[in-house]
Amino acid sequence: MEQDPFKEYIKETEPEKRDKGYAWHTAIGLQAVDGLRPSKYLIDTAIKNIEGDISIDEAGELLNSYYEENPKSDATDRAEEADKVSLRIVKIVSEKAFSFTPNEYISIHRKLFTGIYSHAGRIRDYNITKKEWVLNGATVMYGSASELRATLEYDFSEEKKFSYKNLNMDQIIHHLAVFVSRLWQIHIFAEGKADIGEEKADIAIKIANIDEAINSKTRSNILALYQYCGKETFFGRTVVESVTGLKSTRASEVLQLLLRNNIIEKVQGHGKGKYRFL
User: Fold this and answer.
1) Cα separation values, 134 from 11, 142, 160, 180, 226, Å
2) Could you tell me if 202 and 131 are in contact, meaning their C-beta atoms sit under 8 angstroms apart?
3) For 130, which DSSP code?
4) Please, are residues 48 and 61 in contact by the beta-carbon 8 Å criterion?
5) Alpha helix locations (H) across 34-55?
6) Above pLDDT 90, what percent of the chain?
7) Is the Cβ–Cβ distance between 166 and 175 less than 8 Å?
């Protein structure tokens, strides 16, 4: 799609059409993040839903019938996945009920991918590394399987304590981005066989080989910091605190840990206490 077919609906003065247009725009945009493109059939079906000609459930029935009659023979064609997940996202964002809990998070994954992936809504029970295109192909080692549930519950509990009072929009977006990146980093859900890799990027190897024992939470914090800063950005203790949510003393300890293991280095000329990843 070269042109957003829902752009005009987002400007719509009629609330119902505007809300539906925004929901479809969001759903398809989220698929684009994974490089998935919806079919023209889905776009046409979505417009019928926005115009009020069919309900979201009727749109789902049409989509299922379409793929029953037109099965894809090419395994690399993921249009069916893009279409069905887009529709399910629209249903979820249109729902009024929501609870900010790990169980809701897991339930959403199940709703999105049931019938598409066998591991939908299932917490993985093995460790993984993956090459991530969003990190220019770097391989990332994700949270330890033995601590996934505890880590997830900790992240949700800490986010619940956070107050957005008096924050401007840029600060709100930054905080939410950090929270979402932490969820991405622990990567709780099981993977298809093709996604389980044996390779380890240099940063993952260095962290795994740190002399002193570190728990998966510390490892996750370090990888989140690396994801945020990369090898070009200079950072200090306050950035570590912002990205990881650690208190001042613990953030300083993490910096010293990284220094001792030659994962970061001090830089001069950019203010006191600045570092970068090697």
Assistant:
1) 31, 15, 28, 14, 13
2) no
3) E
4) no
5) 40-51
6) 17
7) no
Q: Which residue in 82, 144, 142 sits closest to 112, CA to CA?
A: 82
What is the spatial distance between Cα 266 and Cα 278, in angstroms, rounded to a whole number?
10
Mode of pairing for the β-strands spanning 129-132 and 275-277 = unpaired
Helix (H, G, I), strand (E, B) or coil at 206: helix
By the 8 A CB rule, do 172 and 218 touch?
A: no
Distance CA 166, CA 55 (A): 40
AA letter at 226: Y
Residues 190-249: tens digit of each pLDDT: 764 333 332 233 455 455 555 444 566 677 778 778 777 777 778 889 888 887 888 888
Find out whether 140 and 132 touch, Cβ atoms under 8 Å: yes
Which of 50, 118, 44 is CA-nearest to residue 83? 44
pTM, two decimal places: 0.62
Cα 244 from Cα 18, distance rounded (Å): 37
Look at residue 104 and give its three-state secondary structure. Answer: helix
Distance, CA of 254 to CA of 277 (rounded, Å): 13
Comparing C-alpha atoms, which of 155, 100, 148 is closest to residue 123? Answer: 148
pLDDT over 70 at 58, yes or no:
yes
Give 146: exposed, middle or buried? Use CB within 10 Å, 0-12, 13-18, 19+.
Answer: exposed
CB 206 within 8 A of CB 261: yes
Q: How far apart are CA 260 and CA 242, in angstroms?
A: 22
Backbone phi and psi for residue 268, each to the nearest 5 degrees, phi listed first: -105, 155
pLDDT per position as a tens digit, 146-165: 888 888 899 899 888 988 88
Neighbours of 195 (CB within 10 A): 13
